[in-house]
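FORM 7B - TANDEM STRUCTURE REPORT

SECTION 1: FIRST PROTEIN
SEQUENCE AND TOKENS:
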Amino acid sequence: MRALAAGVLLLLAGCAGSYRNSSVAITSIAAFDTDRFAGRWYEIARYPVPFEEDCKLVSAELEPLAGGDYAVDMFCHFEGVTGPGRLMTGTLRRQGPARYRLDLPAAGYSGDYWVLWVDENYRTAVIGQPGGGAGWILNRDTAIPLDRLRAAREILDWNGYDLDPLIFVNQGGPL
């Protein structure tokens, strides 16, 4: 999502570029609790993706479905525009432990979405695309504590992501 979403991330539209060094191995987390991951996530940072262009204040709601899948409602407000914003609905289909296929039909997007890290209490998560076309730092609240932000950035770096193009989103709380 920009929110997650966006990202979630989400990783959109066959991004031609990559934000990560493909020679670095990328891994999703093995011990992943699908029930604890459900719920609302706020986008704290993201890599530029077409389906989130001009979005701000992105959030995503993940509702558990059978087999570890999720229904996704991703919401974004547009930069400089007042009004209701845009809702993108889709599905995260489980492909393996903490590995999903995100489908956002209205955005014309489908892509891999891996949970690279989540803190012990499922308050902060790092999402990435194996090909490096997108990535997100998500949080349960609009503000993220510095220690978890630092940890999330370290996870992106460890998985080969270039931190320079990362866009921080001001959800209204301190970053």
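SECTION 2: SECOND PROTEIN
SEQUENCE AND TOKENS:
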Amino acid sequence: MRAGKQSGFTYLSLLLIVAAMGVGFAAFGELASSAAKREKELELLFVGDAYRHAIGQYYESSPAGHKHYPRKLEQLLKDERFAFNRRYLRRLYRDPVTGKDWAVVEAPEGGIMGVRSASEAPPSKRANFPAGYEAFEGAPRYADWQFVHTK
């Protein structure tokens, strides 16, 4: 009879250990997921700012004072308005959040004045943005983070 009680206790102990490990792994998974999301947000801010800066350079370097925005993002890789190749980006970067192409922000007079994520997911970061990105404060979704060149 004693062996039966002892094996029941061992079985119950093993179940408790497995349950505790499951809770621990779930907590670790949540932390890893949050860290990955924060990393993607940092990359989104970095790459989005690179696009904003490149679009601004394209606009400001327009020849003969006729400033206009690029008609497509590929023009940031090779500006054919000049006799020599002018590059504002090394390559077209994907949206870090979706892994797809960026959604473009059209300028009122035509062309692309900025980019934004197409993601409807809510961001983790809601405050303490760098200078110039105060409009991102409290944005309900990544698609509201618009990296736009302003004149």
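SECTION 3: OBSERVATIONS ON SECOND PROTEIN
The beta strands are 103-106, 112-116, 146-148.
The mean pLDDT is 87.

SECTION 4: SIGNATURE
Preparer initials: ____
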